[in-house]
Amino acid sequence: xxxxxxxxxxxxxxxxxxxxxxxxxxxxxxxxxxxxxxxxxxxxxxxxxxxxxxxxxxxxxxxxxxxxxxxxxxxxxxxxxxxxxxxxxxxxxxxxxxxxxxxxxxxxxxxxxxxxxxxxxxxxxxxxxxxxxxxxxxxxxxxxxxxxxxxxxxxxxxxxxxxxxxxxxxxxxxxxxxxxxxxxxxxxxxxxxxxxxxxxxxxxxxxxxxxxxxxxxxxxxxxxxxxxxxxxxxxxxxxxxxxxxxxxxxxxxxxxxx
Length: 258
Hints:
Helices cover 28% and strands 27% of the residues. It has 258 residues and is of the alpha+beta class. The strands form 3 sheets. The protein has a 6-stranded mixed β-sheet with strand order 3-4-2-1-14-13. It has a 6-stranded mixed β-sheet with strand order 5-6-7-8-12-9. The radius of gyration is 17 Å and the shape is globular.
């Protein structure tokens, strides 16, 4: 028996609700971390998700950001929303829950463009704040999955074109260094472990026929604590869902744990 844990940036839960419900029905994942809800707390489609057989906890924000954790047949138990370190930061980007004996966090790391500038500085500070929280979670010595849209392309072989992405905040040396420092605490990048030579994408832009050309990159990551990594069975991307009508520009990305 393996749990399927998914991270899925839906790019607007109201616009993508038919696609999300289709995915839940067809794949029956056990836990789903959603990002970019673009929905306030009171407009989150809880009834539709419950009808699909999932309990949910969400941290919404009108028009942008927003994260949620869904669990099949049970209600996630919220542990923390938001990260410490910047009390004035009101972005809905982090939600941590207990589900089925796991600690699961849904993460929507800042994009950081245009860089250089204040948005990029915020991104780098946010990575530092996430690292502080991640260290505290590791100290608990329990199975943890940090799942989300990290807006970081970790390696050159995680993009279709290094040259095209070189100016982007997603691929700056500082962004990559922040991600590497996080991993260095003892986290396992599940997809990288499964595909060590790269070439696996989780995002394809709507512009310039990126999907048709398979011009994508990998920014959706599932990081496993040692106790979760010991249970790793498989990891992958449900790529076909990106090609459906009115799909998100991200594909559901997943890990299976024993």
